[in-house]
Amino acid sequence: MDSRRTALCLVCVMSILWALQITVSKLALNAGAHPLAFLFQMLSVAAVFIACSTLIFSRAELRAVRQKDLVPLVSIAVVGSVCANIAGYVGLENSSSVNYGFLIKSALVFTAILAYWFLGEGMTHRKGVLIIGLITGLYLVTTRGKGIVPSPYDGLIILGAFFYAVSNILAKSVVTGVHPQVIAFFRTCCGAVLLGIVLVCAGVPAFSVIRPDLVMATGLFLAGMQSVMYRALRLTSVCYLSMMSMMTPVLVAVIGILFLGETFSIVQAVGGAIILLCGVSLSLKEC
Question: Could you give the 3-state DSSP secondary structure of residue 178?
Fold first, then answer.
């Protein structure tokens, strides 16, 4: 299998794991879990899984990390696991889930701009059209075409999206010289420690567990998603990864229909179809 097909398969697996993580997280939050506390617990479980996997299968790669790579690796954890999550989840607590579901995916726009500026990834007319198509489809899926009610906290959600994009740009800059599993190790392990310190200092009940079974499940899904994501990032562009991950909201909707009894309107179906068409176009020819 060539690298392009391998990358496509990895991105598809990543999207499935991400969709499962989001769905199970929704169950935990509906059960009364504190959003930031649950995030810390999920990240901690993922860190344990990834640390064990890294120490067993990628110990040599971990030892091979160069001193010059330590700053960007820790920065990925700070920006992607701490700053992005705190900004996004505080915004979610004070805004609506509809606003969050749509605005957090503005990371795609930030990724395209930052990749153009800092990584030299091209910005073609075709890529622009596909980005507009993906955002349009996402809007229809997340809002059912009814629009969003602006909130002062929406800016925090957009800031979180920006931090997610920066984290991926940093990862792409080091992934050719650092093993993907090692990047996942630093992001989850350093991120869990730093996030835990911030939450404890802020008085958040970080160690109050509501549903241990859901924490374990989401932690496992997150660990798998992180490991797969950085393997895909080594093989393809960061913008392609971000664009193809837009399949995740469609998968979340499908899982919700099949297992949670949620409904799917015609408008959402149209949005999902637009996202799928853009995804097929990307899979046939990368931008």
Answer: coil
